[in-house]
# Entry
Amino acid sequence: MINRRQFVKNGVAAFTVGFAAPAFLSDLAKAQGASSRNLVVLDLGGGNDGLSTIVPYTDSFYYSRRPTIAIPAGTVLQIGTDTSGKALGLHPRLTGLRGVFNSGKLALIQRVGYQNSSRSHFSGTDIWSTATPPNTQGSGWIGRYLSTLGPLDPLAAWTTTGDTPHAMLASGVSVAAISSINTYAFSSPNSGAEAVLERSTAASIASHVPVNQPHLSFVATTVQDAMVTLDRVASVGTYRPSVTYPNNGFGQALQMVAGAISKGIGTRVFFVQTGGFDTHASQDPNGANGAYFRLMATLDDGLTAFYNDLRNSGLINNTLVLSFSEFGRRITENGSRGTDHGAASVMLAMGGLVHGGIYGTAPDLNPATSNPSLENSGGDVTFETDFRAAYAQVIDNWLGGNSTNVLGGSFKKASLTFI
Amino acid sequence: MADDLTAHLLRRAGFGASSDDLATFAPLSYAAAVNRLINYDSIPDDVDSKLGQAGFLGTTSNGPFSPNTVINDARQRWVFRMLHTDRPLQEKMTLFWHNYFATGYTKVAGATSAIDGTRLMAAKRTEDAKGQRGQMDLLRDNAMGSLRDLLVAIAQDPAMLIWLDGNTNTKNNPQENFGRELMELFSRGVGFYTESDVYAAARVFTGWNLRIDRGATDGSNVYSFVYNAGNHETAPKTFSFPIYNDGSTTIPSRAASAGMQDGLDLINALAMHPETARRVAGKLYAFFVSETVPADPSFMTQLATTYLQNGSSIRPVLQTLLQSPRFTDPGVFFTRYSWPVEYLVRSMKETGWTGFSAGTTLTPLVNMGQQLFEPPDVAGWDLAQSWFSTGKMLARMNFASTLSLNQKFRLATAAASAKQSPDALVHFMLSRITPASSLSMLGDLNVYAASAAWTGSDTQMQTKASGLAHLILGSAEYQFL
# Structure
């Protein structure tokens, strides 16, 4: 991650010098908002156990290798079979998403990953972010896509996490990190005209960007970005959703994203995270208070509310959600009734124009070393679809970009047609 | 007044300086100032006795203030310590190690209880009814000692045994979490270990488990490290790097009863590896000197060599570092991105704290991105530029507003000698609350202060003094140490 910071530092100097005036940015936001398609990238932080999300409930090895944390065949939400004929079921708590799946608006992509999958949270996240394996350094794929759009409004990319995710970092791309609308405001020790004057003075102080001091420039530019986006972001706070979102961080973040989409403030790509997937111990996918069960509850309730809300407002056809996680998990459970870091996992894509269904095939969980769908001596699921194929599909067919340029090569896969 | 170099030292090796701090250090030579900070054992550690006393930062709690059993009270106590301690470098290094070992309260409390989670993170052994010691107490006591000793202590720390799942590591089901992070984050670093090293390290620590002696009621459990010989894998473990001085890479098979030595052998080796020395030197350099300008290789070698020659001891490394021209170079003054808690404490030191409460810092710290005892993951907080998104910058500006409002009357009183003109008030405020440079903001501040006909009335002084404090504290120039 030191290298990531190194990268940011180098990228920033070039950015601050040419920073544009607020009036121009406002026009830019309108122009960019007009194209109105949104991408919501969802990070399932910690390494999602794909075998508990999409359950191969007819594979006897699934049960023999997970004596305490397998999901009984009788409780999975059946979704049919994949192209290899393997019957699959969603985690029993994903009832809302099963509805979206049944309506053809949810794509499930099995066994996504890359060669020599990193088992490190940090390297793994970095690789999924740069999309240039095995490189963990350099710009992020979303950032590279955004940088092809020309001068960017400060709200073109919005992360609901506190930190700017590596996937969004690129030279000349400023990312708004807004985790709460209420705190995204300018307060003052004084009121009335004094407060107004403080705000304009703060903006004026930040406009003196010392280009020969990149660290000061970076923070001054951050202040500028904050000041020129205050009012637009505040407008998102007036959004009244058509459904009730879960009262947790993930649900509230999605409500904010829906608000930003509905208010048309010009954001092209959102980044949302829900964490806790690093289930080394007491994974328990079955009990109502089990760790993985609760992860699925958070995921399902949040995404279902988001889908229904945007469907009700007629904006779901402008919206695509794409999930990823830094790695999948070990097939055999460990002594703590959990799973250690593994390799390939699943991706989800949801939206009004998604071609729903099951993409890719489930792994055969037979630990025999000759089994081609596993690696690490039969310990982990090996990838069948390069994650960049999914990115390429989104860049080309949804965002209208050029995936070969953004990803540095052609990764399209003919059978991957989810959007 | 202390000079610019001492002020720099106190920003980096402490949490900034109040006017009292500056008076304490003013008579000292630079070498003596460094010595006072580093060799703090002779200075009484009595800061906690000042909690609740007049003239110090206040606290806010539901019911009696209970920093050993209520996590938000523990957070307040730590902010209080940072602000008022006479051993600022010890507190600073405790923060450094907290980020280094990055243990999160939520998981520890989830595995125990809210009370016991707080005890395991933050209890002072001397204040806990059962003598339970929180991880932060351990880090504070070992803040300047050897990394080797600290790694052994942390490997056996109950909070860490829960955080990285050592409590479930057994021979039938080796648990990789601690072994991996020991190599990736606590010693050699990414790229200097293999996946098979991870499996080997997991087996090395099989049986390093957690013992819980249950009390009658919540809060009386006692958590301790236990070596369970029956859970230990006795087969030899081979690494890709040397474990012993003869270059051997294999920890030999031992009887289970003697198997705890496996873990000590691995830690002894890791602590003294050149890769670890360079990594620790790099972390200390980034923390104290610069996160953005890489150290020149010869200086890194010097720091790493000092580390190795002193058996992984941190104190001599800091002695070398703080006396080095790399540290004292005025070119590095005000170039390090402040961490939120550093920003917040320095703001209070320079603006004032009387009548303010540590409870009022809790939510702002979350919004700035640094909730104490809750780092985002095992790698700690993302540092440097990562602290500065638009949202997190607004959180800093809004804390500045809250503090300035709270200190409005005191600021106006303190500035009474400057009430003759708006320019004099600006000058006073900039001498009290010091940004990296005042040049670029001076014109704006003067215009702001002179926005209305000047009377120097109490009301006007309160308005403008607090407004100026808000603007300076909220400027880009103030975000650096």
User: Anything to note?
Assistant: The first helix of chain B runs from residue 4 to 12. The beta strands of chain B are 208-213, 222-227, 237-238, 250-251. The CA atoms of residues 400 and 470 of chain B lie 5 Å apart. Chain B has 24 helices and four strands.
